[in-house]
């Protein structure tokens, strides 16, 4: 494939609420790199978090891509043209102190690595570090939308590893967006006992019950800590997964926690956000407050296996699809956090989609809200 004189389209974020589709040159891979034609890319909540995206702008957004390798460098042996792949935007060195301890997201190589120019582009260059360290072939029968779930699901996998979820654990999930839904499904798959979740959007509460919750709590109508206590016979949860980032949410998570429990912060708050805790309760009840940031190669491999097994797939969580030209609408829908879960960009020109149409291909066909040809 000759790309020396060709251009491509990419979604460039200039500010929260200001994402533009622009023309730019297609990257040319070096001897140890690969060029991927992106077929589908998920929109992450981080892409629409004002403080988080603004510190990166201007930037080609997107870090949940799946696509097909169209060119490889002369020294690439592991992959070939035509391979269908997931490729992580970060990859570790696998040699440093943090990597040896399994904390790949603390590795400086992991933090410095990146795909070029970003996942929401028609073509992406995958550097050697990412190609060798965290690029995975997708099964032939796996849809592109399923491929976009590898990275977000891997973040959930890592969170459960850090929280050391055990069969029979009583679990509370705060926030039932796409990540909360995957938490519920994975917790149920891993043998969790009582599962209680909270949100303020009826659509997401209903989806939470479909995902496996024993009880979905509308926090506009009742206290979530009280509901958790009631559902656990007064004991509280053994694991509380906190998806919202406000101090109030973390404190409510601690209130939901039982003795000897863990409260996991899944998303980071804005820098400088303080948190005041009752340290007496934290100490004597041995409540562990932990965090989980992103994921590493072990997690992406486990996530891919779970998707291939059908434990979690796009038909359960992908609710809307948009063409690249409507990336701002896709971001707006994600930011509204209402009647949607995972929103993906469809960059596959051979299969045009109506704006907002759910993914109905592959493993997700016949599940979820999949309209006919006329919508």
Please tell me how large the radius of gyration is: 21 Å
CATH second-level architecture of the largest domain: Alpha-Beta Complex
Number of strand segments: 16
CATH topology-level fold name of the largest domain:
Quinone Oxidoreductase, Chain A, domain 1
Which regions have little confidence, pLDDT < 50, spanning 5+ residues? 350-375
The H/E string reads: EEEHEEEHHEHEHHEHEHEHEHEHEHHEHE
Tertiary shape:
globular
Q: Determine the strand fraction and express it as a percent band.
A: 15-25%
Number of helices: 14
| Name given to the CATH homologous superfamily of the largest domain | Medium-chain alcohol dehydrogenases, catalytic domain
Taking the sheet with the most strands, its summary is: 7 strands, mixed
Terminal Cα span: 37 Å
Mean pLDDT: 91
Q: Please estimate the helix content.
A: 25-40%
Helical/strand content category:
alpha/beta
Please render the helix and strand layout as text.
Elements: E1 7-15, E2 18-25, E3 34-42, H1 50-54, E4 59-60, E5 65-72, E6 84-87, H2 97-100, H3 108-112, E7 123-126, H4 128-134, E8 135-137, H5 144-148, H6 150-163, E9 171-174, H7 178-189, E10 195-199, H8 202-211, E11 215-218, H9 224-231, E12 237-242, H10 247-256, E13 257-265, H11 279-284, E14 288-291, H12 297-308, H13 314-317, E15 318-323, H14 327-336, E16 342-346
């Amino acid at each position: 494939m000759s790309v020396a004189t060709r251009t491509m389209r990419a979604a460039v974020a200039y500010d929260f609420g200001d994402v533009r589709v622009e023309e730019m040159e297609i990257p040319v891979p070096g001897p140890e790199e690969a060029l991927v034609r992106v077929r589908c890319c998920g929109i992450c909540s981080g892409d629409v978090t004002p403080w988080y995206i603004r510190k990166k702008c201007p930037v080609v957004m997107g870090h949940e891509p799946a696509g097909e390798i169209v060119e490889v460098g002369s020294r690439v042996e592991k992959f070939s043209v035509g391979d269908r792949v997931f490729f992580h935007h970060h990859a570790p060195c696998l040699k440093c102190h943090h990597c040896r301890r399994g904390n790949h997201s603390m590795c400086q190589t992991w933090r410095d690595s990146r795909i070029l120019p970003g996942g929401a582009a028609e073509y992406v260059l995958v550097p050697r570090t990412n190609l060798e360290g965290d690029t995975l072939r997708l099964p032939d029968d796996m849809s592109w939308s399923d491929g976009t779930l590898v990275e977000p699901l891997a973040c959930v996998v890592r969170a459960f590893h850090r929280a050391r979820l055990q069969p029979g654990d009583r679990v509370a999930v705060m926030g039932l967006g796409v990540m909360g839904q995957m938490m519920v499904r994975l917790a149920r798959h891993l043998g969790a006992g009582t599962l209680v979740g909270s949100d303020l959007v009826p659509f997401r509460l209903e989806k939470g019950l479909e995902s496996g919750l024993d009880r979905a709590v509308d926090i506009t109508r009742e206290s979530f800590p009280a509901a958790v206590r009631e559902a656990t016979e007064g004991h509280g949860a053994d694991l509380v997964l906190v998806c919202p980032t406000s101090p109030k949410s973390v404190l409510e998570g601690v209130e939901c926690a039982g003795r000897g429990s863990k409260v996991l912060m899944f998303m980071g708050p804005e820098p400088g956000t303080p948190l005041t805790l009752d340290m007496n309760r934290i100490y004597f009840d041995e409540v562990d407050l932990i965090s989980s940031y992103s994921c590493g190669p072990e997690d992406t491999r486990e996530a891919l296996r779970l998707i291939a097994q059908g434990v979690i797939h796009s038909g359960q969580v992908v609710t809307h699809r948009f063409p690249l030209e409507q990336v701002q609408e896709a971001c707006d829908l994600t930011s509204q956090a209402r009647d949607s879960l995972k929103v993906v960009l469809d960059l596959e020109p051979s299969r045009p989609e109506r704006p907002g149409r759910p993914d109905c291909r592959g493993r997700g066909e016949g599940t979820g809200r999949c309209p006919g040809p006329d919508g």
